Amino acid sequence: MWSSMDARALTTPLDAATIRSLHAGDMVHISGQLITARDAAHRRLMECLDQGLPLPVDLAGQALYYVGPTPAPPGRAIGSAGPTTSGRMDSYTPRLLAATGLRALIGKGPRSMAVVDALGAHDCVYLAATGGAAALLAECITSATVISYPDLGPEAIHLLTVKDFPTVVAIDCHGGNLYRNDSRDDLCSTGSTSL
Questions:
Q1: The pTM is what?
Q2: Annotated catalytic residue, options 29, 42, 122, 158
Q3: Would residue 42 show up in a list of annotated catalytic residues for this protein?
Q4: Crossing angle (nearest 10°) for helices 93-100 and 39-50
Q5: C-alpha dihedral (82, 138, 4, 111), degrees to nearest 10
Q6: Which tens digits make up the pLDDT trace of 30-60?
Q7: Are 89 and 45 spatial neighbours (Cβ–Cβ below 8 Å)?
Q8: Which domains does the chain have, with CATH numbers?
Q9: Where would you tag: which of 84, 147, 178, 184 has the fewest CB atoms within 10 A of its CB?
Q10: Closest to 2 measured CA to CA, from 164, 127, 160, 141
């Protein structure tokens, strides 16, 4: 369904060396497992960190997808599963990267400079999934299981099994940034968030 021409195939979990080999603009198809978390789940993860408690899921080496999937129709693993605007997680992201060893974040839209800096400091990459293609992205998901915070409904933390999930490296760990204008401090914040 998605063309794999010129795309780098990666399988989770990911290591730091793999992340350092990626550069802004690289096409990446991910297979393996993705962990989902949106705003409400991030708030609870921060509460765990505040209280010195272990997180309910091991994020080391993992890819975190900002998505709140819709219920699965009959015969499907999941409903629509398009990316959430990532900037909503920016206030949580630097701390989460420092605490967990996450290697990839997946969403849409630009990130704050604090997140860009944290990606570099912690060998993590920000991958953009195409907004507006939720039903097509769902076809790459072969299973979905709630693994934490079931009371949050679609914002619960899910474990997704994916095959050739298509993304593009939007911000790499070297400072390469597809959302950036000419200056490193000038992030595109008014353009389309479809990527």
A1: 0.89
A2: 42
A3: yes
A4: 60
A5: 20
A6: 999 999 999 999 999 999 999 999 999 999 9
A7: no
A8: 7-171 (3.20.130.10)
A9: 184
A10: 164
